[in-house]
Predict the structure.
Amino acid sequence: MAATSAVQQPRLSAHRLRRFGLIGLTNAILLGAVFLTAVPFIYMISASFKPQYEIFTFPVKILPDNPFMDNYVTLLSETLFVRWFFNTFFVALSRSVLSLILCMLAGFAFAKYEFPLKSYLFIFILVSLTLPFEILLVPLYKLMVGWGWLNTYWVLIVPFAASAFGIFLARQYCLALPTELMEAARMDGAAELGIFFRIALPNLKPAIAVLGIIFFNGAWNDFLWPLIVLNDRNLYVVNLALPTLRGPYGDQYGLVLAGAVLATLPVILIFITMQRYFIEGLMAGALKG
């Protein structure tokens, strides 16, 4: 027995060493990935507090010698950044709310109702996911020209109000809703819209959080479509406006970096606010899979 224990002990120690070594290597790789991801953002914040000449000094300094607030003062007082920020927030919020309502309604209908050609319509929606946006760009632009929506908020909000991906994801979450609740509500005389808003939506908060973050982030980061349909500088969104910040002798990188820092704040705040529901939604989706 003593000899057997002596043989097993080194094996256990070697197994533990390999296990700890693998865990350490994995953690080191993850920390390296976090570092590579975080460094550009850290430098963006740091460089936004530097004058133009200090941004390009070598060797690179992460922290500025003296915090330089003129980039933010100039950005907010001498440019249209406040208007651009409002445009972006208004478009992102409006598109997200409208997309949530339409996609949740469509997903609920596909999940809980039977109607003619239901399967074919859903397959058509799934097929549309395979089309890249570049294919739809020209016909969508001609449609907006025909409606007279160029250089308006409508052209940034309405064309993307009901995405195929949003309908598909909403349907997957709605499939998990207990049908018995809907039947009980109908027996109590509830209307179909009342069932949706009073029964379904309160039980779909994780799905709303996931879709809301996806929609808001997509609208906030949109660049190609505003570039094509907007010519009025007063209607620019942040992503389109920041590259236009040019001084008399070249690009004002301090202003651009300051604007980029301010432009990331709403996305971070939205994620922090809805983080709990977002994680619940991802976990629910994983359990369904």
Remarks:
- The radius of gyration is 26 Å.
